[in-house]
Design a protein that fits this description.
about 350 residues; mainly alpha; 16 helices
């Protein structure tokens, strides 16, 4: 039941993200229909805006949704563990689909990757060091920025972030980012053989939420009824061994609850502050309602929709070498208006 609920919820969020990307492409070509959901793909900019808000009181009116996505991720992690990674994140859903293809469609024709335990330990810890080192460095750098200069940096880097991302993919398909594209393809290949390779070893956003996961009010615990049958190992997409740890609120657990559902002895439990037990089937309801509730509150407070005008977007797009008829027409009208003054 949990696995089916997770599949449905992830499919819905993934479909919403797919539609948002299509709408953004439509917006680039017509100047209409931009979806603010696209901001979820720019988490660094969202975190920057959040820090700038706390430091200066300046609310990002250009990409407010990105800031809200990060805030919603932090709050839901504190109350529902890293549920964003396990139930909502579209990248995680896509990577899970690669695992599904390997296990269900290709089947056993693809061998498992086995390596000596010592080599695996060294390699995993090296990748963790890169992952958390990068995350800590980014967070430290942004937090330490003086509030006085944050709006200026925002204007040059964060403001055009969605346009820069779009331009990157356009250039990539034109063969201008072959090395970066090769790295992405390499990550996808590894993710085909190793479930959630990106999430396990490289994702800085997952590492960031993992810090809050340690302090989450919701706890996933191993009970004394555990018989060390190790079935939980096979169900964990993050390569964890739930049977070896009493408390599973670590930096890597994504609260998928797969191991909890498959445990024959019901030896894994969810509890709030370690006191009030929660049924697993209620967990996704709490998670989704809390996440969407934060977004709904932001919409109500007018802290969701971008206030950047189509004319300004036209200028930014053209500055990045992207030119569409609607952009030329808008700026031509501005030029005519200036000439008549």
């Amino acid at each position: 039941m949990i696995k089916k609920s997770r599949f449905i919820i992830r499919a819905i969020f993934f479909a919403i993200m797919f539609v948002a990307i299509i709408k953004y492409i439509y917006f680039v070509n017509t100047g209409h229909g931009r979806s603010d959901i696209i901001e979820i793909l720019c988490p660094i900019g969202g975190f920057y805006s959040l820090v700038m808000w706390f430091k200066t009181g300046f609310v990002d009116h250009i990409h407010p949704a990105g800031m809200i996505f990060i805030l919603a991720g932090i709050i839901t992690t504190l109350f529902c563990m890293k549920g964003f990674c396990g139930w909502i994140c579209p990248v995680g859903t896509f990577l899970d689909s690669l695992t599904f293809i390997r296990e269900k469609i290709v089947g056993q024709n693809v061998p498992d990757i086995n390596m000596p335990p010592k080599l695996k330990f060294i390699l995993e810890n090296f990748l963790y060091l890169i992952k958390f080192g990068t995350t800590v460095a980014l967070v430290y750098f942004i937090v330490r920025l003086p509030g006085q200069i944050m709006p200026m940096i925002y204007q040059s880097t964060v403001l055009p972030e969605d346009v820069s991302l779009y331009k990157f993919w356009i250039d990539a398909f034109d063969g201008k980012h072959n090395i970066t594209l090769g790295v992405i393809v390499g990550i996808l290949v590894f993710s085909y053989f190793i479930p959630r390779f990106w999430c396990r070893y490289l994702c800085p956003l997952g590492a960031f939420y993992g810090i809050f996961n340690i302090f989450s009010f919701l706890r996933l615990k191993k009970e004394d009824s555990c018989t060390n049958c190790k079935l939980c190992n096979k169900e964990c997409p993050m390569g964890l061994s739930p049977y070896t740890s009493k408390l599973l609120n670590n930096t890597r657990c994504i609260a998928c609850l797969n191991a909890m559902e498959k445990c024959p002895n019901h030896s894994l439990s969810l509890s709030f502050l370690g006191i009030y037990k929660i049924k697993p089937i209620i967990y996704p309801l709490i998670l989704v309602l809390l996440y969407l509730g934060i977004i709904g509150f932001a919409v109500q407070k007018d802290m969701w929709t971008s206030k950047l005008s189509p004319r300004m977007y036209a200028k930014i797009f053209m500055q990045h070498g992207i030119m569409k008829p609607w952009m030329v027409e808008l700026l031509r009208k501005d030029t005519k208006g200036d000439s008549h003054r």
